Amino acid sequence: MRIFKILAVIIILLGGAYAASMYYFVDESKNFTIEKEIDYPVEKVFVQFNNLQNFTRWNNFFTSSPSIDIDYYTPYEGQGSAISYVDPKNNTDGEMFIRYENLNKTLKYQLFEDENENPTLVDVKFKPVSAEKTKIIWYVHTPKLSVWKRVENFWTEDRFAENINKSMANLKNSLGNKVEKDNQMAAIKYDSLMVENEEDKLLLGINVSTSNKKDALYKNIVMNYNKVYNFVTMDLGKRDDEFGYPILITDADNYKDKEVSYFLGIPLSKKIGVSDNNFNFRSVNPSQNYVMYYKGNYEGRIRAIQQLIQKAKKDEMRFGDIRQTFIERPMEGQEVNVKLSLSVYK
């Protein structure tokens, strides 16, 4: 009995010492600033922050948990927009609001986590460094904590900084795909032969062999595109702004064959674990390409491919695979919008 009394006294003394040290030496709330730069113009960056549907697609706080469920509330972007979230796996929930917006300059967020009635306040400022670079500055003020919870302030800043680092990597990938798509659409000149240098790509897709009879090839492409798209979006959880246009790779002149073999893939930013053996990664090396854009029925692409091959032969260039980049997703019964790229070399 005496031992229990002694232990109780020790626990009370330790608790008192802990509470006193937290009260006198640890701030009840934290204020800190984090700065980052990203190589995109401010008008493209800002809309990723003031539109909460965009925001939750790249912010690591929301993307890191597969079990999180998010509800969005009108007006969906800008001042007055809000979300609520529940993550049963991690036993957390909360609400987030945009309380103030100054277009392309400032946003003020409030984040209520779990049952805490005091919000975390986050002011984000956007400063153009150049026409193609933006500085993002986070000013964070955490809610007041009781002396018993105040120890959390030791790691709050590090945890927030880690989340921002991961989020910025996601944002860079997302904006990269958006800008690439926008640039490709703006650069389209149909039926004109051009020369381009293409960077390396990493594709996740499927290898296929199929009949080249009338309409059979295109129907097969549509079917396999849907397989790859569904796998990337549903099984891997990728959103449309996280990957590029689908690319079909095949021999340049196999349009004459009775059977066609091709690889159809979707560009991703990095390799990830894939459990389904039907899908595999393929690296596309940098190359110089003869390029034509074509819009029409799929059979009509053959004439454009022939022009690319004739140009390569005339220039005494050897050529490799031809890549068909679908600017618009292939759909049965509809015309295609494709970029045809013939890799050439001496």
From TrEMBL:
Pfam families (alphabetical): AHSA1
InterPro entries per record: ASHA1/2-like_C (IPR013538), START-like_dom_sf (IPR023393)
Entry's family note: Belongs to the AHA1 family.
Protein name in UniProt: Polyketide cyclase
Organism (species): Chryseobacterium culicis
Domain Activator of Hsp90 ATPase homologue 1/2-like C-terminal, residue spans: 39-175
Higher taxonomy: Bacteria, Pseudomonadati, Bacteroidota, Flavobacteriia, Flavobacteriales
